[in-house]
Design brief:
Blueprint lengths: L1 H21 L2 E5 L6 E3 L1 E5 L2 E4 L4 E3 L3 E5 L5 H20 L3 H21 L3 H22 L4 H13 L6 H14 L3 H13 L4 H17 L3 H14 L5 H16 L3 H14 L3 H17 L3 H13 L5 H17 L3 H13 L7 H12 L1
Length: 362
């Protein structure tokens, strides 16, 4: 009996060890339903590399579920944290969604102190910062705690694949908090970081957007002119810069010039996400002119045809809600609002958070 017990124990230990050796991480890529499986060998601000070969750029990674030890932590805390966050993303009831996010945050906080693997521990710390920010934004609470956590993370891990997302999130909530100087410094740091060139160019445009939000047209024009001189003509970011030029014209109430620029971008590009950006900008231009019936069609293009970018789609639904109210089509307005507030795809978008905040204060 003792021999049998000893043999069984040895067999279990062997199988457990073999399972750990063969354990793989689940890498979730943007636009892909199923994760890529593999053992991550290295990580940097540019992306990750697998042991068996192959790599993925940071901007393509949506999330990673690491295979962690000890087993008790993996089963009792880490996997439940991941599952709770996924449940939150699927939830349509705001109260239930908040409960799932809060549960995920609590479990990631616990996992961060118990997980052994450095990559996984770092990701748990990032999740804590990101979820703290998300809950603060959606509930309209102080952003100070989230800002502090994000600043600590980027200082502690300056060469992690999460760095780009961390700096973008930090800059955006600083901007929403009215800290224009802090947001500009954060986006400037992102433009200098060891991140993919695509992310650097996006950061340069975000710096321009800070100046636009600050209503500093001179600084925005100067930064945008410098960017357009360096960006390849016809490239995605070059055309995004042209959309920003139109937004600057709108800020000066030069609506005709703005619309002409946006119509040209729409005509010349085949990129659906860029078309969405330009159609939404044209819609906002017409909305500000109080030409609500014309604005409606611009936003409908994004809602129906160019809805691949979820943030732009959320923006279109937000303005459709407002536009339909202005032309007294309240039933359609309510349909757009409900779609924005309940569909999983719009979780975490600034436009959903904006609509939620306005609903609470109305």
């Amino acid at each position: 009996m003792k021999r049998l017990l000893a043999f069984a124990t040895a067999a279990w230990v062997y199988l457990a060890a073999a399972a750990l050796v063969n354990a793989e991480d689940d890498i979730f890529l943007r636009g892909k339903e199923k994760p890529v499986k593999g053992v991550i060998a290295s990580e940097s601000a540019k992306g990750i590399t697998l042991k068996i070969g192959g790599s993925y750029p940071a901007e393509a990674i949506e999330d990673i579920q690491y295979e962690v030890t000890p087993t008790t932590v993996r089963l009792a805390v880490y996997k439940p944290a991941f599952a709770a966050e996924q449940n939150a993303l699927k939830a349509t009831d705001p109260k239930k969604q908040r409960e799932f996010f809060e549960d995920a945050l609590k479990k990631y906080q616990e996992a961060a102190g118990k997980v052994n693997e450095p990559f996984a521990k770092r990701h748990c710390e990032y999740k804590v910062a990101a979820l703290t920010a998300r809950l603060a934004v959606e509930e309209g609470k102080s952003l100070a705690g989230a800002i502090d956590l994000l600043k600590k993370f980027k200082a502690k891990y300056p060469d992690s694949w999460q760095l780009g997302g961390c700096l973008q999130l930090l800059g955006r909530i600083q901007l929403d908090d009215g800290d224009f100087t802090g947001a500009a410094e954060t986006f400037s740091e992102l433009a200098r970081a060891n991140v993919p060139d695509d992310v650097k160019q996006e950061a340069q445009l975000l710096i321009v957007q800070v100046s636009i939000r600050k209503r500093d047209s001179a600084a925005a024009k100067k930064a945008l002119d410098e960017f357009l001189k360096s960006a390849p003509p016809g490239s995605k970011h070059f055309n995004k810069g042209r959309v920003l030029q139109a937004e600057l014209a709108m800020a000066e109430k030069n609506y005709d010039a703005a619309l002409a620029q946006l119509r040209q971008v729409i005509k010349e590009t085949t990129d659906k996400s860029l078309k969405a950006l330009a159609y939404n900008a044209a819609g906002v231009c017409l909305y500000e002119k109080e030409d609500y019936k014309a604005a409606r069609w611009e936003f409908l293009w994004v809602d129906v045809e160019y809805n691949q970018d979820k943030n732009e789609h959320a923006k279109a639904l937000y303005y459709l809600w407002k536009t339909f109210l202005n032309i007294n089509e309240t039933e359609k307005a309510q349909e757009c609002l409900q779609q924005l507030l309940t569909e999983r795809a719009f979780q975490g978008t600034e436009w959903r958070a904006k609509a939620q905040k306005e609903q609470k204060t109305s």
